[in-house]
Amino acid sequence: MIFEVDLGSTDYIEEHDAVIVGGGAAGLRSAISLAERGISPIILTKTTVDECATAWAQGGLAAVEPPDSFESHAQDTLKAGHYCDPLMVREIVQQAPAVIDELRSWGMPFSPVLHREGGHAVARVYNTGDGATGAAMHAVLLTRAKKWESKSQSTLEL
């Protein structure tokens, strides 16, 4: 069930298996993952689930597509990031294409043209082409999260 509640109210008593703080991309994707596994999450936000940094993001998501390579992407990220953990960078770079595919399968309207943005040696940035990539991604994730509203094995509350 998805609804907004006044946490100051004593009328709201509910049990959940997991509490997620934040309704941006990470919070919504975590909630979806938990709900898919039958775990009942609740997302707590400072204001509403629509007000998050993800919705304001204008750039895009970087992922390798041939003839680009994972190593090239990792090296660009490490060079630009200075203090990044090399093992974590390589793990994220390896997973990025699957994330793009997943978002696309859920309806993310990526532009068919990859872009080259700061720090990248080649065009590998997926965006919506209109400067509102974050808003589109947030809408896609929120729509996906709301699909768990009627599932009997798990309840997702936002």
What do you see in this structure?
The protein folds into 2 domains: 1-58 and 132-158, NAD(P)-binding Rossmann-like Domain (Rossmann fold, 3-Layer(aba) Sandwich); 59-129, no CATH class. With 158 residues, the protein is mainly alpha-helical. The radius of gyration is 18 Å and the shape is globular. Helix 1 links the parallel strand 1 and strand 2 (41-44). Mean pLDDT is 87; it is low at 150-155. Helix content is 39%, strand content 8%. The chain has 5 helices and 4 strands, in the order E-H-E-H-E-H-H-E-H. The strands form 2 sheets. The chain has a two-stranded parallel sheet with strand order 1-2. It has a two-stranded antiparallel sheet with strand order 3-4. Helix 1 runs parallel beside helix 5 (133-146). It has helices at residues 25-36, 53-56, 70-81, 86-105, 133-146, and strands spanning 18-21, 41-44, 61-62, 125-126.
What is the compact description of this entry?
By secondary structure, the chain is mainly α.
- Estimated share of beta-strand residues: 5-15%
* CATH fold node name of the largest domain: Rossmann fold
The counted number of beta strands is 4
Total tally of structural domains = 2
Task: Give a quick account of the main beta sheet: strands, pairing sense, barrel closure.
Answer: 2 strands, parallel
State the helical fraction: 25-40%
List the helices and strands and how they pair.
Elements: E1 18-21, H1 25-36, E2 41-44, H2 53-56, E3 61-62, H3 70-81, H4 86-105, E4 125-126, H5 133-146
Parallel strand pairs: 1-2
Antiparallel strand pairs: 3-4
Helix pairs in contact: 1-5, 3-4
